[in-house]
Each structure stands twice: as C-alpha cells, then as structure tokens.
Write a structure and sequence with these properties.
The structure holds two protein chains of two kinds.
Chain A (H helix, E strand, L loop, with lengths): L3 E2 L7 E4 L8 E4 L2 E4 L9 E3 L8 E4 L2 E6 L8 E2 L4 E2 L5 H9 L1
Antiparallel strand pairs in A: 1-2, 2-5, 3-4, 5-8, 6-7, 7-9
Chain B lengths: L2 E6 L5 E2 L3 E6 L5 H10 L3 E3 L10 H16 L3 E8 L7 H9 L5 E5 H4 L2 H20 L4 E4 L4 E6 L4 H20 L3 E4 L9 H5 L5 H19 L12 H6 L4 H8 L8 E5 L11 E5 L5 H10 L4 E6 L12 E5 L2 H6 L6 E2 L1 H4 L5 H16 L5 H4 L15
Parallel strand pairs in B: 3-4, 3-5, 5-6, 8-9, 8-12, 9-11, 10-11, 12-13, 13-14
Antiparallel strand pairs in B: 1-2, 1-7
Classes of the chains: A mainly beta, B alpha/beta.
Chain lengths: 97, 388
C-alpha cells in the first residue's frame, strides 16, 4: 500500500490513508515527495505547489482555495485551505466596509 | 427479477416492517403517546417538540412529516394522539393517513379527560391493532417497490473514498432492478450541485435542485458566520474534511451515477409511478434528514459514517456502513458493514456494494439491523420557521 489516494489526476493533493511522518519520503505517482509535517491518517497532503488564492482540487473538482502558499509535501487542512461557500463571515465584513 | 417478502397495503404499497405507530400531533401529547406505546408490545411512538404555534410552509412541512410517517408502508396501523387545542389538529393528520386505507384512530387528552384516561383509551385501541397486525403474514413482492433513503453522517475522508461509492453501487443495482433511491442533505450538495444538476432528466429539475442549494446557502450566509465549524462539523474537521465543498463532493457518491428523475421538498412523497433516483431537500443533520426521506416513503435507509453513529429510525431499518476500518472495530455494536476493507485493499467497491445490496435484501425480508436490534428510534422534524 502506497498510503495515499490520488482521486483524480487533476487533484493537487492526495488523501493519506496512513499517518505520515515529517521527513519521510513517499513515492506519489512516480515522483518522490518529502513529507513536511506530521499528517494524521485520512488528512490531505499537497502534491503540487499551490499559491495563495489558487484553487485546491479533490475528486477533480474545486474543494476550496489556498489561504496561503502550500508547498509540496505539506499538510493541507483548515489552516491553509479556505472554503468559498457559505461564507456569511465574508459577506458580513463586506457589508460593514 | 428479485422478489422480497413484505406486507401488502391497501394502497398498493409494500411494507418491510409491520409497525403500530402512535403519532402525537404536538409536544403537548408526546409524553402521553410514549406512555401508551410502552404498554403495547410492538408499538412505537414518535415524540417530538413541535405541532403548535407554527405558521405557513413550516406548519405544512410538519403536517407532511407526521402524515408521511403514518402513510409509510412499514406502518400497519396508526393511533393519532392530540392534546385537542393544538395548531396541528389530530383529525387533519388522521384523515390524511386514513386515505391509505390502513386502520387509523384518533383520541385527544382534553376529550378523554386527562393523562390516565387517555392512556387507558389509547392502550385499548392499540391492543386491538396489535392483534390485527400479528395476524398479517409476509407475501412476495418485487424489489422495484422498494424505496431506499441514502444518508451520511459523522463523515470523514473515508466516506468519499470507500463507503459512499460502495453505497452508490448498491443504489445503482436497486435502480437497475426497477427500484427507487433518494439522495438528500441539501447542505451537502454545496460545491457539488453542478454534478448532480447535470444528471437531472429535465432542465426544470436541474434548476429546481440548484435553487434549493442556493436557498439554504443564502440562509446560512444571512447569519453572518462561516458555515465551516457547523458544516463541516468539528468531528468532520478533526477526521480530515476541510471544507463543505470537499464533504459534498464525497457525499454525492452515495447516489451512484443514475439520472435524477425527481426533486422533492422535505417529506414530500415519492411518485410511485416514476422509479429511479430522487433528490429531497433535507438538512445535513442526520435525524431530520432520515425522517424526511421516510416520511416521503422510504422503507429502508443505508447510512454511511466515518466517525461512527448509532442513529436508527422508529419505523425503517437503517443499515450502517463505515469506510473507516478503525471505526468499524471501535463501534462494532452500531456498524453493520465494514467498507474500510476498501481502504485496507482487502475488497473492491463492487464487492462491498454487493455486500450492501445483499444485506438490503435480507433486511427487507426481516433481518434486523444493528440499530433496530439496539432499539434506536431517533426522530426529528426539520423546521423552516419560527415558533409563535
């Protein structure tokens, strides 16, 4: 078992199906990726460089945008990926400005 | 052709259970309804917090839910218990249920003269119903009469990879055999609605589905907060789901790849003349969502989970499937099927899909699900208005 699921070729991240350790090397679709953080089981790891504001793909579809630059091998979760939907907080800020 | 064994109803539908249902029309009658149920073997009550001081569409939706439960083919006889003065009048609910041809009686606490006399009168009626139901036998019917409710709750990333695609294959098989499935949970279409809309058989249905998603998203935005933390929930997030879009994209795999032939409001009945895949507008909250689909006519529910959940339903068997092998081991009391075998590369999605379909057949014929064997009877009505 490679320990990850890359649901679509278009996806810039993979789902880890085992916990990953910072510093370990994982072969993702033939390319070696150095894991940058400890990543809990079933969480996601970036397999492309994703710039802040760029779309994040899973299942070949947009699942959010990068809230800061995300590097290959980095844990991708709520600290660096934002939702673009159901954002009443943003709508409220825009009304107040 | 796949034949099942169930209970023939006067309106032509088929039940896979033969419940004696006691429906309180308001919160004021709920405790009394539960006490009556406790006296009669096999009787089940659906206590709830609603039924009075509701207006407009919200009132109609609660009525539709109570009536839908009474009309569900898994129910063989119904006692409606009212206080007497509540907004949802017991007679209104009873008359709608009686159109299905099944035995229905109504009593009110004010007319009976208090709690004890109502319990006595209700128990006498229900004891008679219990004897009638016990004499009924299962007969053969075609699987095309089956309506399956699709639910997911306490999801984690294994749901989108393992359990939901497995259930999608079981749903496809049911529809290939002429049956019906209902996808629900409008909130969990946010970010994936374009994919389901593209499968609607008419543009009108596609527009309606997209409008339902917009309706709930705009409502959440009106609260001025980020939906994240509620959807996905704290447990979803801890499990590894990051955004509602990601949750939704995984969620829709439950519905396989069949065309969408109908789009329903909450608790609106499935059109028995049009078989296939439906979408129903329900919230992502599991209990309200299952209640809506069962009120719409689902006799059986398949429920996927990643984190694990015990939820059942008072009148329909709920088959629990997890894609998370650790959860399967940890919550073995509650989970029927381990789709985590896909994650462990011990089984394919097709194999687990077949296992789910086979269990649907056994459960339809009378096998108990774990939720049933533990007596889980969660019931919740989706409110869309205020209480006045």
């Amino acid at each position: 078992m490679n320990g990850y699921v890359h649901a679509s070729e278009k996806d810039n991240l993979v789902t880890c199906v085992r916990a990953m350790k910072a510093g370990e090397r994982v072969l993702v679709d033939g390319t070696e990726v150095v894991v940058r953080n400890d990543i809990p089981i079933y969480h996601k790891m970036a397999v492309s460089e994703i710039k802040k504001g760029e779309e994040v793909y899973k299942y070949g579809e947009v699942m959010g945008v990068a809230s800061r630059d995300i590097h290959i091998g980095e844990w991708a979760h709520i600290h660096n990926v934002d939702s673009t939907r159901g954002r009443g907080d943003i709508a409220k800020r825009e009304v107040q400005q | 052709m796949i034949r099942l064994k169930g209970y023939r109803r006067a309106d032509g539908h088929w039940g896979i259970r033969n419940h004696l249902l006691i429906i309180p029309t308001s919160v004021c009658a709920s405790e009394t309804a539960s006490r009556i149920a406790s006296l009669i073997p096999g009787a089940v009550a659906i206590p709830h917090q609603h039924g009075c001081c509701q207006v407009g569409e919200d009132y109609k939706q609660t009525v539709r839910t109570l009536v839908g439960f009474g009309r569900n083919p898994n129910v063989g006889a119904v006692l409606v218990v009212g206080l007497g003065c509540e907004g949802i009048q017991p007679q209104v609910v009873a008359e709608e249920i009686a159109k299905s041809g099944k035995p229905v009686e109504t009593i009110t606490i004010q007319q009976c003269g208090g709690t004890l006399k109502t319990i006595s009168a209700g128990a006498e009626i229900c004891a008679g119903f219990a004897r009638i139901l016990a004499a009924q036998e299962r007969e053969e019917f075609d699987i095309s009469e089956l309506v399956l409710g699709l639910e997911c709750g306490g999801s984690d990333p294994t749901s989108g990879i393992a359990s939901n695609p497995s259930v999608g294959r079981a749903s496809n098989r049911l529809i290939d055999a002429g049956g019906t499935s209902i996808l629900s949970e409008t909130t969990e279409l946010i970010g994936a609605e374009h994919l389901v809309a593209a499968r609607c058989v008419t543009q009108e249905l596609a527009d309606r589905l997209v409008w339902m998603v917009k309706r709930i998203e705009e409502k959440s935005i009106s609260y001025g907060v980020d939906l994240r933390g509620t959807q996905p929930t704290p447990g979803n997030i801890e499990g590894g789901l990051t955004t509602i879009e990601e949750k939704s994209l995984g969620c829709i795999y439950k519905a396989g790849d069949k065309p969408v032939v109908g789009v329903l409001e909450y608790a609106e009945p499935v059109d028995s003349a049009v078989k296939g895949l439906y979408f129903m507008d329900t919230p992502g909250e599991d209990i309200d969502s299952i209640t809506g689909m069962v009120a719409g006519g689902a006799q059986i529910v398949v429920f996927t989970t990643g984190r694990g959940t015990p939820t059942g339903c008072p009148i329909a068997p709920v088959i629990k499937v997890t894609g998370n092998p650790e959860t399967y081991e940890r919550m073995i009391d509650n989970i029927d099927i381990n789709a985590g075998r896909v994650i462990l590369e011990e089984a394919s999605l097709e194999e687990v899909g077949q296992e789910i379909f086979d269990m649907m057949i056994r459960v339809s014929n009378g096998d108990l699900t774990k939720a049933e064997s533990l007596g889980h009877r969660e019931f919740g009505i989706y409110r869309i208005g205020d209480t006045f």
